[in-house]
Amino acid sequence: MATDVIEQQGTSASLNEIAKRAGVGPGTLYRHFPSREALLAEVLATWVARVQEAAGSAPVRTLDDLVDWLGRLSGIASGYRGLAASMAASMDDETSPLREAHRASLEANTLVFRRAREAGLIDHDVDSGTVARLVTGVAMVAEQGDLPPEQVRDMLRVILDGLIAHSG
User: Fold this and answer.
1) What is the pTM of this model?
2) From its phi and psi, is residue 166 left (phi > 0), alpha (psi between -120 and 50) or beta?
3) Among 113, 98, 124, 88, CA closest to 42
């Protein structure tokens, strides 16, 4: 039930509405999920699996592959309206229930960018946290501006231009 409400209304959905649709009282919901972040963390278990699967299957041979990867990550982040902002707000909070989602995102980026380095696309180590913040920013802008995929892709290319190996 919570997933349905959050998919429809975003991460700022009414917790009372979630409790009502689940057929429980607000007190019961709050006993199981003492905060909005705790509820989001539970809902994001599926999100985490999608991020991990996407990283494992992402081809990394060309710049377009990296743009595709970041596009997929941005798309996954904007699967729930408000998720990118919720993630950004708690990104540095080690006690946040959203920590597992952050960890999954960072590990996925580390995997993909390590493979990009091995393929010669990037000539230095890339900080996954920095890339995650940049992609989160793009996801937030894309969501707020209701941007078409081509514009999101262009923004991701700008990010990658600073990361790719330049010969010469």
Assistant:
1) 0.75
2) beta
3) 98
